[in-house]
Amino acid sequence: MKILGIETSCDETAAAVVEDGTRMLSNQIASQVEIHARYGGVVPEVASRQHLLSIIPVIERAMTEAGVSWKDLSAIAVTVGPGLAGSLLVGVNVAKAIALSRGLPLIGVNHLEAHIYANWLGDGSIDFPVVCLIVSGGHSDLVLMKGHGDYVVLGRTRDDAAGEAFDKAARILGLGYPGGPAIEEASRQGTASIQLPRAWLKGSHDFSFSGVKTALLRLVEAGKVSSVADAAASFQAAVIEVLVTKAVAVARGRRAKKVLLSGGVASNSSLREQLVKHSPLPVLVPPPILCTDNAAMVAACGYYRWQAGRTDGLDLDVVPSLKLV
Ligand code: KG4
Ligand code: ZN
Of 21, 56, 90, 222, which residue is most buried, by most CB within 10 angstroms? Predict the structure, then answer.
């Protein structure tokens, strides 16, 4: 069964065709990064206008790359939230138009759940339960996944999400946007020699990253940072140590089979290495291109929703503040 996935929740216009929830036949992503970089972050109005310009060519490219025509598709899956309302509306309305005109089932997908399902775009043989660490621009969630679509949130961020913290730290250090890749790149030339605080929030699986960001800001303001590379490496090490320690603690405490890492921050190679090194359970992490926003993960997630009979009508609407559960 081939599903066309559509993703427009933030600043990537993406479309992909995935077969049986695991086999990626195409994966097209039109990034708006260069457009937003000059403003230092995503400008919502600009993002939705850009999605409008890109969405049809991106879908056409995804269909061509997959070598499929409309009659080969069995359903359309689209991100409904969380995300920017104006951006989400573009994807949802295009998905509805295709579903209506081709008489195809429509499947509304939660973007966070889709990030988890990027891990199914391999051999797809994952036994439950699994522990999921989702780290993106808007979320840092530790989740126990007991089955398809069955989640218990164990911990979440109390302030800045991991990706948001990377983006803010990069701005503080003058490294530009998007911050995560810039911090990772700068870190390669430095050492984690600067002491920065870690918020352990003892007894809780929640995260807090605003303290480490503020500590970095204070050091920069006081003129105490002589090496941007060392500051970037120290910040990256502080955030990753907390993420890994908390994920490992949860993995030890649950009868899980695997740890699944996902979300844009999961493309950070140090995070990937540290989690694999310290986890008592096997770690699964998608290739970097499937960690950041893409539509293949939306199609994969849509497949399992469809299997569970969870399709939607043409009254499907965007839910900008949608939660995982
Ligand atoms: O999942 P994603 O593409 O979009 C959201 O759903 O938010 O995640 C984007 C976030 C941004 O904050 C970006 O700075 C961060 O992921 N990111 C990284 C890296 N690549 C992207 N953070 C750390 N290291 C990276 N290599
Ligand atoms: Zn995302």
Answer: 90
